[in-house]
Write a structure and sequence with these properties.
Serine Threonine Protein Phosphatase 5, Tetratricopeptide repeat; single chain; mainly alpha; globular
Length: about 950
């Protein structure tokens, strides 16, 4: 390390020390980190930098990072008392009490006269002793539960109860530690091979999932005891609940090794990933190898692909490039080429959702190809796969490749379009559609439907393929007929919402919709028929006449909702697009009047909006759908990993919540939980739509009913995200109103708003010129003022009280009432705030306006402020009473109770308090 580096590192350390003293923790952290990066060799200087950074991490409550830095310091300078003490503090916060006690004992042993460590040592000793006592009890309880749960001769209900008790123990730190050290894992493994009771099986798997959650060390031990093949054995099931439980186990393992949480906005710890790189890569290889495992169930295959989707993004475990390099792309393409209705010898078990989920995974991989070279590599893999299939002479390969192209057009659309654009591909699809082979007709129809996603492609297909589709619509095979119908529906809707353009003859779309309806309602047909019929309606409902016909068809709406409740990923597009079109929840481009005039002048086509898409018709359709129960359908569909689908679902939810009478229905049918998930993950527009829907619910429904328990705190972050200059005024207003309601629920809610940085954002809107925004912010701040921490902020060196005094004089009655209420709360909580009232030049005008206000409720608030100021100190009382406020108080004390409740009594009490202080005298009293 050069002299310059030494000098610079010392300079950064000194600057870091100064920032630390001033309480600028983030700045101090950055400076200490710079100092560390300049040091190339271990020594006392580096140990000091690590030790100082650990202190900063403690202040920022980054306890894991504090432990890591202390470990690095102690590796260089063992027994350093400051590093030991800071690690002890961090370990205690992490509830690793035994380790904290070990460090405290080490410090005391080296320095018995250290008075700082003695109370910590005594406290930790009591905690450790209590934990040992509890562990002994837990161990006894565990043994008794094991005897019952794993004994096949016991009563089945007793065994189920015992297994549930073991699950509870596994969730506790002490219980999980004992279980990991005991033989429970091996017993569960043996049990699952012979157990017939499904509830006991699933609970046993969930126990394993909980044991993976506590620490990487425990996770490694459990993983070694089980082995990766165990996951495949238990995952290979047709029981959805069991598959979900095993999927949870695998994700919990990855979370433990990476530092991620089960929250959608959780980010991994890069150092932790590096430390457990071998284990994470082993799990990835295991997942990739089993994508195309021929013997596992379709549900197991879907679960494996979903795990890849969840972790492939660069904000998660960044698996995209590894999937490309390790053959994952080709395996996913194989899944997209599988057909549920037709089986070959080489077929895999799939579900109706497998192809859609695989396409979604390919889309997620493609999204993470950030460099041209990476995109080229990804594209090359797909082109080679398609080319290989096309070179094969058998018809099976042709069918599979067309099914794969269809999936690509529903996943990474750009890639799909590039493949379709290759010479001969479109011609091959049209030739297959023209054959007499039902299988070829079906896959060709599906591909034509997917290809017509873009307007330019739709025109080409209208020119080439309409006659083919019409011919196929006369097929004897219902599946072919239905797919041809959907193709015609899509081509018929290629003009979108433009009422002036129609590719087919007038009334054709309504007739096509009627044909789709017949397939939807035909008794005895499986879900696949409804799925295709719904997709047809998804295209046709861009036509306002079709919307009005469909919304009156209750039976058809209910059939569509029933389809959505199945949770089938493949029906997602059709259902959600139909719902979105029915209530115009899609994003509409703003048309400027001057641009319309310019288009007329240039003789360009101008889109026309249909009269049936006016707001009154849209509102009617929203209310019909809400009352028919589409919330339950949205909840089922919201589990999708597709970000664009999540955005569409959020839009429909927000449209429902725009109608006040439907908000209670949304809450009752489980919409809040789904919205919380949608608000934290997806496209930016989708998250905003979900946040706004939550805000609308929070405005009209009691927060403790709408957001029970912990959810009352979790909803605060999405609401604060709406308090941003980029959001619309309506979104800002609704968020402020919802936060206002939440702020009055509890101190925990107010603390959460503070922690999420909500106070400064609310404060920003106090300066808004828009009356509604300013009023909502003031009302919100009034409820926030009930927090002692907010009172401390108002006591600080700032002009916040001056602003509140100005707002109390606002012409808007509601704003004035809220601001005067805020002043009453703040002055009642702090003598310092009482003194700060006088810093405003308008304090007297403000109090006079409040006391003389014709509204008794505002008068009373003004009296509360005056009463608090008088009680705060004799000096403040003298300042107040030396003005004409005393005369106003005397006048108010004469007002009748009937018309001005509390006013006369409060004014009289203030006068008595001033008299007691000697600030005023009653008439007839002698001067001293």
């Amino acid at each position: 390390m050069g002299t310059a580096d030494i000098e610079n590192s010392e300079k950064y350390k000194e600057q870091g020390n100064e920032a630390f003293k001033n309480g600028n923790w983030d700045e101090a952290l950055a400076l200490y980190t710079k100092a560390i990066h300049l040091v190339n060799e271990e020594g006392k200087d580096l140990a000091t930098y690590y030790k100082n950074r650990a202190a900063t991490h403690l202040k920022l409550e980054n306890y894991e990072e504090a432990v890591t830095d202390c470990d690095k310091c102690l590796k260089i300078t063992p027994s350093d008392p400051k590093a030991l003490y800071r690690r002890c503090q961090a370990l205690e916060k992490l509830e690793r009490f035994e380790e904290a006690y070990r460090d405290a004992t080490h410090i005391f042993r080296d320095d018995p006269n250290n008075k700082l460590i003695q109370p910590t040592l005594e406290r930790l000793y009591r905690v450790v002793q209590e934990r040992e006592r509890r562990n002994a009890q837990t161990s006894t309880k565990l043994e008794s539960m094991i005897k019952i749960a794993f004994e096949f001769t016991e009563n089945i209900e007793k065994r189920e109860t015992a297994m549930k008790n073991l699950l509870v123990l596994a969730r506790e730190g002490a219980g999980s530690e004992i279980m990991v050290k005991s033989s429970v894992i091996q017993q569960i493994r043996r049990l699952l091979k012979v157990e017939k009771n499904e509830e006991i099986q699933i609970t046993a798997i969930r126990i394993i999932g909980e044991l993976f959650k506590h620490s990487p060390e425990k996770t490694k031990k459990v993983l070694q005891d089980l082995g990766l093949p165990w996951f495949l054995e238990t995952l290979d099931s047709t029981n959805k609940e069991q598959v979900n439980a095993v999927q949870y186990c695998l994700q919990a393992t990855l979370n433990s090794f990476s530092g991620m949480k089960n929250k959608s906005d959780s980010k991994p710890d890069k150092e932790l990933i590096k430390k457990h790189e071998t284990e994470i890569n082993s799990i990835l290889a295991f997942l990739i190898n089993n994508i195309t495992n021929a013997i596992i169930s379709g549900l197991a295959r879907d679960a494996i692909i979903e795990l890849l989707i969840r972790n492939v993004h660069y904000t998660a475990l960044d698996w995209a490039m590894q999937l490309v390099d390790q053959g994952g792309v080709e395996k996913l393409l194989q899944c997209t080429g599988e057909l549920e209705e037709f089986k070959y010898e080489s077929s895999m078990n799939i579900t109706s959702s497998t192809s859609t989920i695989a396409a979604m995974c390919l889309q997620r991989v493609y999204e993470n190809m950030y460099y041209d070279s990476a995109k080229e590599k990804f594209m090359g893999k797909i082109e080679n796969y398609v080319k290989e299939k096309l070179l094969s002479p058998d018809i099976e390969s042709k069918v599979r490749v067309v099914a794969t192209i269809t999936s690509l057009l529903r996943g990474p659309l750009d890639v799909g379009n590039a493949i379709v654009g290759k010479e001969g591909i479109m011609q091959m699809i049209l030739v297959m559609a023209n054959t007499e082979d039902v299988l070829q007709q079906r896959v060709a129809c599906e591909c034509i439907i997917a290809t017509a996603s873009r307007a330019d492609k739709a025109k080409a297909i209208i020119a080439q393929g309409v006659d083919i589709l019409k011919k196929l619509y006369t097929s004897k095979d219902e599946g072919v007929r239905l797919r041809a119908l959907v193709g015609l529906c899509k081509l018929g809707s290629s003009a979108g919402t433009d009422a002036s353009l129609r590719p087919f003859a007038e009334g054709s779309n309504v007739k096509l919709a009627e044909a789709c309806r017949r397939f939807m309602l035909r008794p005895g047909k499986d879900l696949s028929f409804r799925k295709w019929a719904t997709e047809g309606l998804a295209y046709l409902t861009l036509d306002a006449e079709v919307k009005e016909k469909l919304i009156e068809d209750t039976a058809c709406i209910r059939a569509m909702i029933e389809l959505a409740r199945s949770g089938d990923e493949s029906c997602l597009y059709g259902v959600i697009t139909t719902l979105m079109n029915l209530i115009n929840a899609y994003e509409e481009q703003e048309v400027l009047p001057e641009m319309v005039e310019l288009a007329k002048f240039a003789k360009q086509h101008i889109p026309e909006k249909h009269e049936l898409d006016d707001p009154d018709f849209i509102t009617k359709r929203i209310i019909v759908l809400g009352k028919e129960g589409i919330t339950s359908a949205l909840v089922a569909l919201s589990k999708t990993e597709s970000e664009h689908s999540r955005e569409s679902i959020s839009r429909v939810f927000n449209a429902l919540c725009s109608e006040q009478e439907l908000r209670g229905i949304v809450v009752a049918q489980g919409g809040v939980k789904a919205l919380m998930s949608l608000a934290s993950r997806g496209t930016e527009k989708g998250k905003v739509q979900a946040c706004q829907a939550l805000a609308r619910i929070g405005i009209t429904i009691d927060p403790e009913v709408a957001f029970p328990g912990q959810r009352c705190l979790e909803v605060i972050r999405p609401l604060i995200q709406l308090l941003h200059p980029d959001r619309s005024g309506l979104e800002n207003f609704e968020a402020l109103m919802a936060l206002c309601n939440l702020a009055q629920v509890s101190e925990s809610a107010r603390q959460k708003i503070l922690k999420e940085g909500g106070l400064s954002r609310i404060d920003h809107y106090l300066f808004e010129e828009h009356q509604y925004l300013c009023r909502a912010a003031t009302q919100c701040m009034t409820n926030m003022a009930m927090s002692p921490d907010v009172v401390k902020i108002y006591e600080g060196p700032n002009d916040k009280i001056k602003m509140m005094v100005s707002l109390a004089m606002d012409e808007d009655v509601d704003t004035s009432m809220a601001a005067s209420g805020c002043l009453a709360i703040l002055t009642g909580s702090s003598k310092t705030v009482c003194g700060k009232i006088f810093e405003s030049q308008n304090w007297l005008d403000c109090l006079q306006m409040l006391l003389a206000n014709p509204k008794p409720s505002i008068q009373y608030r003004g009296l509360c402020v005056v009463s608090n100021v008088v009680d705060s100190s004799k000096e403040n009382a003298e300042k107040l009473i030396s003005t004409n406020v005393m005369e106003i108080l005397m006048a108010l004390s004469k007002l009748p109770e009937e018309t001005h409740p509390k006013v006369a009594n409060t004014a009289e009490e203030i006068l008595k308090a001033a008299e007691k202080l000697g600030v005023i005298k009653r008439p007839g009293q002698d001067d001293e």
